[in-house]
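ok trying again, last paste got cut off:
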Amino acid sequence: MDIVFAGTPDVAVPALDAFVESGHRIRAVLTRPDAPVGRKRILTPSPVKARALELGLEVIEASRLRGDVITQLRALDVDAVAVVAYGAIAGPAALASARLGWFNLHFSLLPAHRGAAPVQRALIAGETCSGVSVFKIDEGMDSGPLLRRLELPLDHPDVAAALADYAVKGAPELVAAFDDLEAGTAVLSLQTGQPSHADKITVDDAHLDFSTTAAAVIDRSRGVSPAPGPWAEVDGKRTKIFGLALASADIGASEPGLLTTWNKTAVLGCADAWVTVDTIQPFGKARMAAVDFLRGHGDVRFDPITTTSRPDADPEQGA
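nice, full thing came through this time. structure:
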């Protein structure tokens, strides 16, 4: 089929590559415009745009699907649009620009975790299984009929690892759905079950509460790593804490909020157990090994979660 591929971040690149290797013809790649990146705010093309240019594909850049963009899409006269994390809402005019419609690869088992952060929210919730879904986009939020679902384990150390894994394993599912559409064998099924929603992750979502269980603290840290990054405050200043895992040894009674050294390992107290800490980033400073930080500063006690101060807006510090 003649298709448009729509995507923006790294997780969309495996699907783009999979379509290039398939029998389908990519008439154009739709992606969001170049965006400022890093402290110096250097204007940078999206990973999908960079890959499309390497492949010699036509690129259409748009932050909103309206006006001239709709005209361009209609002129391409494609059979369908494949979408992976494009980042803009497709309204009725856009959805009508392809003969068969727009089809999205979503990183959850729909109708669970509809929305912007399905993997993050699943990790925070402590779920051990999730997956990917291919569905036809309608005017609702990830509510369209399903073509394919693939159940996958969710045992990754952080969001980055989970998304990278799901992106690779989901790419052939999206291509297979398009193969079925071309063959006329695709079966669209209504979503069943209780929907849940996965709102965009905020900095406040990454605030760790050590008065909760070690499992809850670890799950939250996995769901917000590497960005915006798990954090807690020391004397009112935000400190990021990475690489949390349940301590394997019996250290003794836990002291919630205490970061200390045990057997040459940095450990942090939660309500019911200790967790080990890999690295730490004090406010305004570089990330370092947690044991090195403790060697220079001694034990640290994090402020209780009841602290009302707002996090600083420095993007490198997790804002």
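cool. The longest strand covers residues 129-136. The domain at 204-317 is CATH 3.10.25.10 (Methionyl-tRNA Fmet Formyltransferase; Chain A, domain 2).
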